């Protein structure tokens, strides 16, 4: 069992990595999704970040934002959007997922492309979209309204799904969205991250925590257990 000092050291290492623009590995818990995500600060997202996540992790590359950022922007969850749209398109009502099989409400909101992008899918264009979301979060962190900057900077739908931290954060939901946003805040960064699930090409299932730890050791990446994050 880890000592308290070792727990603190693990979190401290991860925070330094995020501040330095590096990827960390974040496992939620064996009692939840039991998945490990690659995570980086959105404002530091480079084409190389996207390439690494795409080739090594292989899951869905998303941008997570703090709930205060979403509130500042007036940005809703996707299930709320679908509920409003179902008044006109009634078939949507039966599809709305208000609670996931592993617990809690889905974090998905809209998907976006930066207005400078062409298709939006390339490593260059996705990283620009995500960096801009990091910049928007920075505006909110400074205490200013960012809605004009947000709506003038992006188009939707796009190739970067946005995830919104639960309103009560970790006390409501302990997913990679909330855990990664908490780490960003602990690091003193704006509340915006880029996350991607790690998948296993041999089993065609999520990569186990044990295998993710092996990659962390081989690539000298910080590995954080979500249960340590408070």
Write a concise synopsis of the structure shown.
It is built from eight helices and nine strands. It is of the alpha+beta class.
Strand order of the largest sheet: 4-5-3-6-2-1-9
Number of beta-strand segments: 9
Helix content: 25-40%
H/E element order:
HEEHEHHEHHEHEEEHE
Number of helices: 8
CATH superfamily: DHBP synthase
Overall geometric form: globular
- Based on secondary structure, the structural category is alpha+beta
CATH architecture: Alpha-Beta Complex
Tell me what portion of residues adopts beta-strand conformation. Answer: 15-25%
User: What does the average pLDDT come to?
Assistant: 94
Note poorly predicted spans. Answer: 1-7
In the CATH hierarchy, the third-tier topology is known as DHBP synthase
Tally the structural domains.
1
**Quick one: CATH class?**
Alpha Beta
Strand count, sense and barrel status of the largest sheet are: 7 strands, mixed
Radius of gyration: 17 Å
Distance between the termini: 18 Å
Structure explained in plain terms:
The protein is α+β, with helices and mostly antiparallel strands. It has a single domain (4-228), classed as DHBP synthase. The protein has eight helices and nine strands. The chain has helices spanning 4-19, 47-57, 67-73, 78-85, 123-141, 147-153, 176-186, 209-219; strands spanning 24-27, 36-41, 62-65, 108-114, 154-164, 192-197, 199-200, 205-206, 223-225. The strands form two sheets. A seven-stranded mixed β-sheet has the order 4-5-3-6-2-1-9, with helices on both faces. A two-stranded antiparallel sheet has the order 7-8. A hairpin with an 8-residue loop joins β1 (24-27) and β2. α2 (47-57) packs across α5. The relative contact order is 0.24. Homodimer. Its EC number is 4.1.99.12.
């Amino acid at each position: 069992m880890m000592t308290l000092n070792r727990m603190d050291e693990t979190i401290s290492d991860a925070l330094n990595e995020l501040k330095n623009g590096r990827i960390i590995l974040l496992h939620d818990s064996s009692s939840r999704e039991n998945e490990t995500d690659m995570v980086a600060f959105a404002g530091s997202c480079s084409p190389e970040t996207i390439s690494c996540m795409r080739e090594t992790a292989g899951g869905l590359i998303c941008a997570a934002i703090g709930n205060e950022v979403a509130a500042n922007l007036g940005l809703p969850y996707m299930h709320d959007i679908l509920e409003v749209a179902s008044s006109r398109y009634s078939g949507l009502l039966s599809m709305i997922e208000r609670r996931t099989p592993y617990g809690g409400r889905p974090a998905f909101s809209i998907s976006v492309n930066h207005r400078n992008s062409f298709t939006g899918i390339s490593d260059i264009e996705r990283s620009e979209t995500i960096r801009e979301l990091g910049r928007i979060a920075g505006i909110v962190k400074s205490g200013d309204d960012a809605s004009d900057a947000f709506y003038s900077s992006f188009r939707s739908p796009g190739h970067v799904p946005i995830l919104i931290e639960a309103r009560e954060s970790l006390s409501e939901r302990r997913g990679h969205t909330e855990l990664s946003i908490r780490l960003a805040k602990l690091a003193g960064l704006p509340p915006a991250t880029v996350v991607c699930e790690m998948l296993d090409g041999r089993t065609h299932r999520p990569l186990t925590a044990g295998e993710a730890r092996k990659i962390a050791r081989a690539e000298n990446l910080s590995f954080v257990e979500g249960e340590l994050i408070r």
